[in-house]
Design a protein that fits this description.
This protein is α+β, with helices and mostly antiparallel strands. The protein has a single domain, classed as Jelly Rolls (Sandwich), CATH 2.60.120.620. It is built from 13 helices and 15 strands. Strands 1, 2, 3, 4, 6, 11 and 13 form a 7-stranded antiparallel sheet that branches. The protein has a 3-stranded antiparallel sheet with strand order 5-9-8, with no helix packed on it. Strands 10-7-12 form a 3-stranded antiparallel sheet, with no helix packed on it. A hairpin with a 2-residue loop joins strand 8 and strand 9. The longest helix is centred in the N-terminal third of the chain and has 19 residues. It is globular, with a radius of gyration of 20 Å. Bound molecules: fe (ii) ion (FE2). This is Phytanoyl-CoA dioxygenase. It comes from Triparma columacea.
Length: 393
């Protein structure tokens, strides 16, 4: 195996010991100026996609702001506003963050000190361990968070909420981890047209999750992350993650999403303070949520990031995802975005091509705000590998 490509980057200090002990770590990353610039960029992307610029304060009335944010959520959120998750995947500004060599350098450091050396709580079966290389990898294409304060979301006790919390969950399937670490992504539907990306087994293994926070969640009940520290070490001691609510045919998994209702677990979930501009990493075995309430006055803005260690299933997954990225498509078949994609979109002005795509579980994301110069990739050598444009050596 050839030596991995290294970028000469200035990597921030990382308290890896904290990650190893508690299963999560916060890493200050952006300066106040960078936070403001990137936050403004994200809000402008939202405006470009929805014709609404997200605002939170007078002189606008609460009723106006409520309607504004309901409109934004209805146009962008396939989670129905849960977690403030908005379906903005494709933009050059997001690609730049995903391929920032400093971030990947941090990720590799965390991987190497945890899974890469079988630290307690990060052991892999030998047959799995040998197939992953924690010095190389891929970025994934994920979404953003824009969660407005409850004063706006729940204005006047209206039934319709613009945004809300994410209930406790895992973004993996405990059963699949037991049986070989592959989450239960169903394969995408076979292509019915040359316009569709080639169908590949849509499985990935994302051992460490991540977001870049562009607002402050230092206080509880401001819409931020909550999690149960240390569960990476006791993950396999939990007999049934969903037992206290599942039954009567209730579905617990939506693609890789597993709702956690076992009260012996949820009682351990607590607020974790994260400062604006920080990268936040947590192990996939840590059950997590976002705060039930957002009693702050500012919107929560974050970019979800994901990185996959180099290995057979992740290489196939990235090849498939790159096909979507090149065409600006999102796959919503099989509940990947918690919804049935065939129910999304449509309308009288839908083209025949988009109809066919939608029938196969793909929808086309609205045009990117910044496409870059035609034919010119904005990535360096490592970025092209992270995006799956070039093979790792
Ligand atoms: Fe999650």
């Amino acid at each position: 195996m050839n030596a991995p490509v290294q970028s000469p980057v200035d990597t921030p200090e990382i308290d890896v010991g904290h990650f190893l002990e508690h299963g999560y770590v916060s890493v200050p990353f952006l300066s106040p100026t960078e936070i403001e610039e990137l936050r403004t960029t994200i809000l402008k992307i939202v405006e470009h996609r929805t014709q609404h610029f997200p605002v939170y304060h007078p002189p606008y009335t609460l009723e106006y702001l409520h309607n504004l944010h309901c409109s934004i959520s209805s146009k962008l959120s396939s989670t129905g506003g849960a977690g403030g998750v908005m379906d903005i995947h494709y933009d050059l500004a997001l690609d730049r963050i995903r391929t920032d060599p400093r971030i990947f350098s941090i990720v590799k450091h965390i991987w190497s000190q945890s899974y890469g050396c079988s630290a307690p709580g990060f052991e892999l079966p030998p047959n799995v361990f040998s197939s992953y290389d924690f010095t190389r990898g891929y970025c994934t294409i994920d979404r953003i968070c824009l969660r407005c304060p409850d004063s706006i979301s729940n204005y006047s006790g209206r039934k319709k909420r613009a945004t809300k919390c994410l209930t406790p969950h895992l973004d993996c399937c405990p059963e699949s981890i037991h049986s070989g670490l592959l989450p239960p992504f169903p394969p995408p539907p076979p292509p019915s047209s040359s316009n569709l990306p080639s169908a590949k087994p849509c499985r990935m293994w994302r051992p460490v999750q991540c977001f870049l926070l562009l607002s402050s969640n230092l206080l509880p009940s401001t819409g931020g992350i909550e999690l149960a520290p240390g569960y990476h070490k006791t993950f396999f001691d939990v007999d049934d993650w969903t037992s206290s609510r599942c039954g009567d045919g209730e579905q617990s998994c939506f693609g890789p999403f597993t709702a956690v209702r076992n009260r012996s677990v949820t009682k351990d979930i607590r607020h974790i303070p994260v400062s604006a501009g920080s990268l936040f990493f947590w192990d996939e075995k840590i059950p997590h949520a976002t705060a039930l309430a957002h009693l702050g006055s500012e919107g929560r803005v974050a970019i979800y990031l994901g990185f996959l260690p180099h290995g057979p299933c992740n290489s196939l997954y990235k090849e498939w995802e790159r096909g979507l990225w090149e065409r600006g498509l999102i796959w919503v078949g099989g509940g990947q975005n918690w919804i049935n994609g065939k129910e999304v979109g449509g309308g009288e002005d839908e083209s025949e091509e988009d109809k066919e795509l939608r029938a196969s579980g793909f929808i086309r994301e609205k045009q990117r705000i910044e496409k870059g110069q035609e034919g010119v990739q904005p990535f360096d050598a490592v970025g092209r590998k992270l995006m799956g444009i070039e093979e790792w050596d």
